[in-house]
Amino acid sequence: MKTSTAFPLRPLLLSVLLLATLSACGSPQYVRDTEEPRLDDYTMSLRFDREDLNRLYDDNIDELMSSSIVRQWDRGDSPVVAIFPMRNETSEHIGQQLDTLLSKFETDLVNQTAASVVSWESQPDLLNEVRRQQSDAYDPTRLAAYGRQLGAQYFVTGKVYDVADRDEDERRVQYFMFVQVINVSTGQIHFQNESAITKGLIR
Amino acid sequence: MSAFSSLTTLPQHMLSACTPASKFWPAVLVAALLLVMSGCASYTDTLRPTRQSLSVGDAESAIAELNTRLEVDATSELPANLKENRALFLLERATLLQAAGEYEQAARDLMHVDDHLEWVDLSGEGAAQVMRFIYSDDSGGYRAPAHERLLLNTQNMINFLAAGRLGSARVEARRFYVLARFFIDEGTRELVPGILGLGYYLSGATYEASGEYENAARFYARAYLSGVWPEAGPERLEDLIALTGYRGRDLQDFGVEDDHPLFFSARSRERLSGAEYRARHQQGDVLVVVQSGLSPYRQAARVGMDWALGYSQYSPYSGVYLSSDQRRKAMSLHASGVFNTLNFPVLTTEGLPPRRQVGLSVDGRVAPHSARVNVADQVHASWTMIGATAAAAAISRAVVRAVAGEASRAATDAALRHGGTEASAAGALGFLAGLAVKGTMSALDTPDTRSWTTLAADIDLFRIKLPAGRHTIAVDVGPHDDKRVVDVLSDEFVLLNFSALR
After folding, report:
1. Exposed, middle or buried: residue B463 (CB in 10 Å: 0-12, 13-18, 19+)?
2. CA of A61, closest CA in chain B: separation in Å?
3. CATH topology of domain A50-202
């Protein structure tokens, strides 16, 4: 029996060329949402993205705007309301996203209610104090002190908790958000709404 | 039929499926390609200039070197992706940025890595991953062992506490605890007790500074039971227990019962108020962290088969890869001289600075108490568990290789005995193919030398209480010293990190 000693080089070379071409196609490129309409649909991390913030905003804003305390503000003297940082009690670094969410609430409170909204962000000393001791943000005595400094009667704020699980390479984070309106002088909670979001990394 | 005996049939299948000439050429080419690839610098070689710069205290050059590896122009930039070991380069850069006091940038790097770093559990099914972990080619994703994974969040707690960002430090404490729970099985906890204890202690300090005393008690209790406690006695913890009424019911993994002395003595005390606790423990409260030396790193080495056979028995999971049949066969092949060495990653301290005692003085007075976390020993312990399993896997592969090579040589001999020109050519190809099979598998066994190489060998903790005012904190580590001036104003917690003293 004759045996061929010729090795089939052509298919191999073609395969190499194809792989090289494919690898070139795989190089990253920057895109904007008008070029890739589904860009905002992709989940890129376990933290909050715009889609999550929109969901949380939708879950809360209607409840807040139709709450008895906001109706009361609209009926009487317009109170001074301060937006206070949300407390992040989760295992994810979502502080900045929570600030974004509060800014959205702030916009609606300014534009759609009788409240006079003051910003603690414009007061550097208070800002530093809040950042340094954010964990004490819910200490009523401190809240009252911050309130007096701002001349605020109410705080709009909140807190976020999570239940985080890992199993081998998979991760899941269940978020629970509570948005609150607190009376500065009494510490009484006049409004509270809960919303939930789950994000995961699955294989 | 044993796994080993089934493997011996491999060359016969190959012979029957292909013509003699065509069947081995791909293997020869692949072997050649792999041998060329194996000439590339390993991770250890790549990081050598960085380690050398760090060893002589030139952090700037070390960071610049890493920026080149990360393909970025400045430390303010993150790499475009974490492929090709960039996750590890970023870990290394974060360590150096922390040493340079750039805590925000160090924290950003670690947070970025944290989102993408996978890890290897040493227990149960994790053992089955070790083969892929150790013997994957170097371009595959890096999988961190338990000590590195736990230290990532621990180091970031140091960054955030040093930067005074309590909220972010609490996030890291929670992330640390989620992982600690993941690694909490008996085997892993025994390997890294100090690293777990360090994470627990820093978590306790974070919650204590945040005014969350119940959580502080939980984590301090774990640190204390892990042996990481830088104070003379447990009064801080006992007072926390008295303040919160914490009973340690979540400490089952430490075998704590109700009659544990810690809780027994705390129960007999009067309940403490928050104000009393703050006055007693949080006025002028300073935690000094000193990171010194460099942990051992991995290096490719040819090790003797005797050593490898003995070493593989250190891991309870080695049986996943090396059955008793295979072990017998390996010993028999070794005795007959078929294979004597194995290409294998080993830990080394070559070129690293010696381990040194750390001293701390405050305004010229020596601080009497400290807790030392011996990271280097735990890197060794963690690596022994992984490495011993990997050694078993490598031996198993070497046995297959030897058998495949022997079978190919047998085919060659048979062809040559048959005689004739074509038979000789086929025989020669068979001989080359035998080498190729061995060479290919040998090249696939390129040891992965990746690890977090800029980790300190020792982390010393000093907890000191200072009166209000300005103080000078001085640290000496052998021939090196460093000092900082700190203003103590109130009950604000201060963490000082010294980690440039390598």
Report:
1. buried
2. 26
3. Rossmann fold (3.40.50)
